[in-house]
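[step 3/7] fold_predict: job queued, chain A
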Amino acid sequence: MASLSAQVPRRRWIIGGLLGGGVLVNYIDRINLSVAAPQLMAEFHLTPTDIGLLFSAFFWSYALLTIPAGMILDRFGVTSVGRWGAFLWSIASAAVAFASGFGGIFMARLLLGAAEAPCFPANAKATGYWFPRQERSVATSLFDAAAKFANVIGVPLGAFVVVNFGWRWGFGVTAALSFSYFVAYYCIYRDPSADKNLSREEHAYILDGGATPEGESASSAGSMLVYLLRQRKVWGLSLGFAAYGYTFYLFLTWLPGYLVQAMHMSILESAGYAAIPWACATVSDIVFGGLLVDRLIAAGHDETKVRKTVLVVGMLFGLSVFNATQTTDPRWAIFWISIALSGLAASAPIGWSIPSLIAPKGGTATIGGIMNFLNNMMGVIAPIVTGLIVGATHHFEAAFLVAGVMLLFGIFSYVVVLGRIEPIPSPA
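[step 4/7] structure written:
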């Protein structure tokens, strides 16, 4: 199969790179607030609890709209919904730059969350269309790793702009990046059946490899949602991924602040240190969550065992977050956080590949929406809980312990509740 893959054209990898580029911009949009937080606290006299609320504002609308976004995607398709989403999130990102206080920033972040809600379910659906099963993990890791790599380049870039030009310019730069992605997506993305640049040979290779069939389900969007909510596999996947999301979003929003407050670093110094765990996570995402998994499956190993082993082992490595509570040395803290995020990064693309592997026809984005809803509710909860804990205790140890307990719950969901990774029967 590997030799056959090398002989066919590679239009699908251009699409995979495009989806990854969108997530890269998407996450730079999300993390710029964490870089600007110290300046916002000083300018608008905000408390740690206020900052926690601002961090979570994005996820309120994002999480609440992920299930409707998945249903809309399954009804109207990736192409049109993806275009509108990319355009609206560039507008929302620009709106933050013109905000005049807590309320304006909060509303702009709510709008950004609504605009970006279709992104990951759309990518999961598009990856199912464009890639055979034996390439699905690598393809998924391209866009999932971009979420981690955004912190490698986004935090230093944001810190440079914020320190030298002010926080408003930081949001202006991300708005320009977002609009550039909208133009690229508008010009390039089509579903395989509508892409004139996709050769017949490559299209046949994708279909023969078990690509998700294009088209709508015979059931209505509401009926499909109700049906999927009754499926044990959907709950096992979604609860396990939500546990991953709690720790991921804790570090996504609070890592720069943790380094400034607990390790007494400057904004620029914290940006350099914060990039290290995210760089490690990017490599782990692609190498272990992508290449290793697809190689093992291509070699004939049981698909369920391979994917679930990487899921669970990655989550176990995530428990290294416990060790970060035992040190006051920033170098050791970054070491343990790097181990934790690398483990979680290896498990993440497996999680995102599963909706297209278990969904009945026309249900991939709906499963992705359910999974993303619970995952991003952790984006609401984790920043607020962390802010409350830090505000009450003036340190991060208890906040990191909470994240570790969540990971143990996620391991249970993946091992016991998810079951075999195989298609759910279509509703009658």
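[step 5/7] annotate
Residues 11-44 form the longest helix (34 residues).
The mean pLDDT is 84.
exit 0
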